[in-house]
Amino acid sequence: xxxxxxxxxxxxxxxxxxxxxxxxxxxxxxxxxxxxxxxxxxxxxxxxxxxxxxxxxxxxxxxxxxxxxxxxxxxxxxxxxxxxxxxxxxxxxxxxxxxxxxxxxxxxxxxxxxxxxxxxxxxxxxxxxxxxxxxxxxxxxxxxxxxxxxxxxxxxxxxxxxxxxxxxxxxxxxxxxxxxxxxxxxxxxxxxxxxxxxxxxxxxxxxxxxxxxxxxxxxxxxxxxxxxxxxxxxxxxxxxxxxxxxxxxxxxxxxxxxxxxxxxxxxxxxxxxxxxxxxxxxxxxxx
Length: 287
Description:
The chain is an alpha+beta fold. Helix content is 59%, strand content 15%.
């Protein structure tokens, strides 16, 4: 019996010693794992803090980039509306871009002659004038002469196409040519028109006409009235002018030459304020 009790005691002691070793081993492993976890948590927190700082810096950079974009957009708008003054015309960069689009249709030879902004403006206006003339069927002849000098179109019409001899009353056969002129004028609202009367050197005087100056002015105003009343041309664009016999084409030494000198000159010229004003309206109205 004593042997049995001793054996149980020894077995129990032996078993207790093994369990304690395992426990200590597990406890050591637990402490190591806990320490590793704590170290990992610390590193995780450090990484999260660093990441938060990076995110904040990225947000700051994005705000700066967006701010720069806004500034750049404002600068672009300011640049587009930056004004240049050429003579009495005030134009923005956007208008100049429209003018460049027009100039793409101009020949390289003519473009090479443009040294300044004013030269470029003149070329653009000249192109539009020529296009308007080409779109009509006015044909040159002995009685009609069309001349385009830079930005000015000059159409000279013989006296016999418009008036009776020594009269300022417009003949019915003038309607065809005046209708074509009105079409040209109305097609380009930025252009002003001067109607210029010319006579030969022979003196004239009667109850209604004092001299050649008077006759030339009356003929010009007669044409202006028809363009306004019959063909609805804006009167603010029309100028009546008389030159009398002061600007002859040839000497007044025979009937043929005097007939050449009796003429009405239609001068279509750009009003730059209107020209770029219309461009500004297009710029405002076009999305």
